[in-house]
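FAQ: What does a multi-protein file look like?

Like this. Sequence, then tokens, then the next protein.
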Amino acid sequence: MVSRFTKLAFVAPLLLLVLGLSIYPTINLYYSSFHRVVFGERSTPFVGLANFRQVLSTPDFRHSLWFSLEYTIVTTLLELALGIILAIAISRLKRGRGPIVSLLVLPMMVAPALLGIMFRLLLNDFVGPITQLLQLAGHFISPLSPQYVVPTLFLIDVVMWTPFVMLITYAGVEAVPPDMLEAAAVDGASPWQAIRYITLPTIKPVVAVAALLRAIDAFKTFDTIQVLTGGGPGTLTTTVSVYIYRAAFGLKDLGQASAAAVLLLLILAIPLGLIVKRLVELNRG
């Protein structure tokens, strides 16, 4: 019989890993948010809510908050629409589902930062293939210029994460009872009517979870934007995560960066709570 000490010995490394990589940084984050912590300074005096007041009064942070919100709403809605359409279209194929799904999820297999580098090369003003094709078509534009950079970032995010929504939605579409669809066909329902009145209502809980997951991830987007634009031109494409990075490694102010990170966590706690609630409801159902 395995003793309690032996069980603890097996679990201890994992507990230490969690403590080192999760709990300690979280505690340090909250500590720094209430103290003045600057690179190169040993003293870390308690400042209360001063860091939070400073962050909230900064125009750059407010802009990053609104841009993150705009980025989240636009990309999530587009990805949901395209993901649902692709999932339903693939589910109706009789052959080739596997290869098509595998091809569509390829962008998910690549790290976002690496994809950002790839798109930066593809969109280069002088040698980028996409820019060259646009010029051949008579459109002499720079996709990363101030005029076009925001829709370009939206489009890149849609290309990267629509497959994620499609996969989740596809699982929901496949779970729709076939007898319901067959009964609808017997009653004379058209394919569109079957989708509208049977498929879409059935997959609504799955779509809600996908929407919340994508909204959380989109709101805290960092790597792709940091690689492509660095939050620029100026602060045009600065998300909250990019603002935190700039505060920490640009201004060297860990206290202000930590306060912004805590605010980001509080904002994301709302949709995260909704996800947990929805998952509990699905399990009970």
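And here is the next protein:
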Amino acid sequence: MEQVKNTSIVMDEKFDLDEFSDIRPYNDEECLPVVKRLLDNNQLFFRLAKIAFPRITRISPTWGALISRWTIVNRLRNVKDIKSFQLVMMNWFFFRMLAKTTDGINHQWLDNPTPEDKLKQGNLLLSNHRDIAVDPAVVAHSLFMRNNPLPLVGIGDNLLSNPYVADVMKLNRGFIVQRTLESAKQMFFAMQKLSKFIHYSIGQKENVWLAQREGRAKDSRDRTSRAVIKMLKLHSGKEESWANALNPLNIRTVAISYQYDPCVIYKAKTLLEGNKKKKVGTDAADLDELVQGITGKKGMVNVVVAKSIVWQDDVTLDEVIVKLDAEIISNYKLYNSHFYCLKKLVDLGLEDEDKLTLAQKVFKPETTECKILEKSLTEKLGKEVYVTCLYIYANPILEKLSLIQDQENERRAK
């Protein structure tokens, strides 16, 4: 059997970190000047006021911004480096927001590390993606609660056209995934650099959060992009096996599920428009969606982090993708909201009742009723938007049923 080589990059005197200067997060030396720049940006305070002080801001945006500015200046007065900035963001901002907008967050690590067990190596946390800011935040929360450093977070460059958004993301250890380059040649070299950066970071025992696909799964179909997996292999070269390229990354799949999606109507309208917008997060409407994702009610949240995958020597790209998809879909937790919407689709004659019956038999939901969605999702939205919203909630069930059928077909074929 071929021995799996470690192709991660280890820091040495010849290694030049300047190669990553255009995609890496800010470092400690850059932290204070960037924080000062943020504190001089009035736009930021008006935007944060909507998140942190929504009631006051609705009455008086100016007062909301002033209170936001005073609060942030007070909170950041002792910030000296990236770690202290992140502690402020996690303890004050994200933990506070998650406490206000969720009914609880369940974390499950399938290899059962206790809060005292720090991860002894870097991991690539390959995750399904539903919310721009909250997805990496809840994974960071899970790491934080287990005494691990917060992860590096991959963010699309289409989110960074707004300067203060870019600054906040990069202060929070965000690294840039370039998606808007024009030529194929530029894109290839950008992906090669990204691959090298991820391998380097994990070689330095960093945890890296990366979405399994480019952009969010607005339709709730969690499928891994071939382009993402190919990017991870670019550092290793064409001749390297998939096992040798991927095993040093210690890939763990992450399945995040929300009982309620505060952006479901926006997603439905975007899907119906055929994703005509080429850039997400670049105008006021998209920033409002980012705010809505943070401040909107999510109900229960569930995060499942799987065991690190060890790939066999002869594994193929197709087999890698099948494995990743199967783990994420299997580990995704279903809530009553999902069953309520599938039942509505059955009532409308858009899905077979057999699917609902099978889903209830296999997954055993406590109830298919959901009073919150009964009030917020109605045909008053317009028939197309209403039906699309129902599918956004119901698709995780349909994906699980499809996976079960695929696995059964595979067993029969053997």
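Q: Is there any per-entry metadata?
A: Some entries carry free-text notes. For the entry above: The chain has three domains: 1-30+81-332, 41-80, 334-414.
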